[in-house]
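Progress note, project year one: complex with zinc ion.
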Amino acid sequence: MIEIRTTDITKLDQILNLSDIYNLKIGLGSESCVYKLPTLDQIRKIANTIEHLSVITPITPQKHYEEMLKFIKALPSSIRLVVNDMGILYSLHNSNSTNNFYQIAAGRGIVHTSEACPWVEHLLRDESDIIKEAFLKTNLNYTRTFDLITGLGISAIETDMESNTVKAAVALGLPTAAHLEFIAVAYARSCHTSRFYNEKPPDCTSRCNTLIKLQLADMFDLSGTPPGFAQPDQKMKEIFPTLYLLGNIIFMKSKCREFQGLERIIVNADMYEPEKLPQIIETLTKKSKQSQY
Ligand SMILES: [Zn+2]
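Model obtained:
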């Protein structure tokens, strides 16, 4: 199945419309920003009409922690809750709140993969096959971490769509979702977008609905005299991918379309221009039917 997801409630009508046409699941919320969540009232209203609406809750800084926990505990029980913060997950478990939802999935804030590093090929270039194999898995492909996470109430996982990562995640045996096309490379504690525009969160929230393209322009060169910024050479430019900034997450594009064994494919609507979205969903629907994932 395909889930279409947004942090931007103004896109809801378009998403509901696409969901009707293509029979999509719907996700609302943010992996990384407490200011990008819909209100409880909005969620309650939508959850009444959508089966197992996914509500994505963010990596949570300490000062927002109590508020976030209160928010999650007030969510309707029919939802599929996506948790991206270990502290939040731990507190939900400690307060016996993990059975209050249809399902709790570990998001990318909890499920990490080294394959999503932009220069992973260069890191592993001289390593043996056994090291490569161990490196290109998720952090949950380790029995102790897996037991810990499932013991805390996790019954589904989400990860980046990279070939080895998807295989390793699926092998864990939990329903696995993978994010189409955009891999989360880094989360920032303070919002890059707000810093770029010299604003303080939450003033940036409306800007954080649109992608900003990042290209390598300067790099810090310690070998220069004196050390300072230098221009990257051609080889460096080839290694360094184009990156995409949305709010406080930096993304990289992945060409991988490995659907085998996946329970769902997640399309982040905020990554695309609204008028291009129907075409993307149409193509993906056809491709996913062919591969019968
Ligand atoms: Zn922001």
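DSSP finds eleven helices and 14 strands in the chain.
The pocket of zinc ion is lined by residues 33, 191, 193-194, 201, 204, 208, 247-248 (CB under 6 Å).
No further modelling is planned for this target in the current period.
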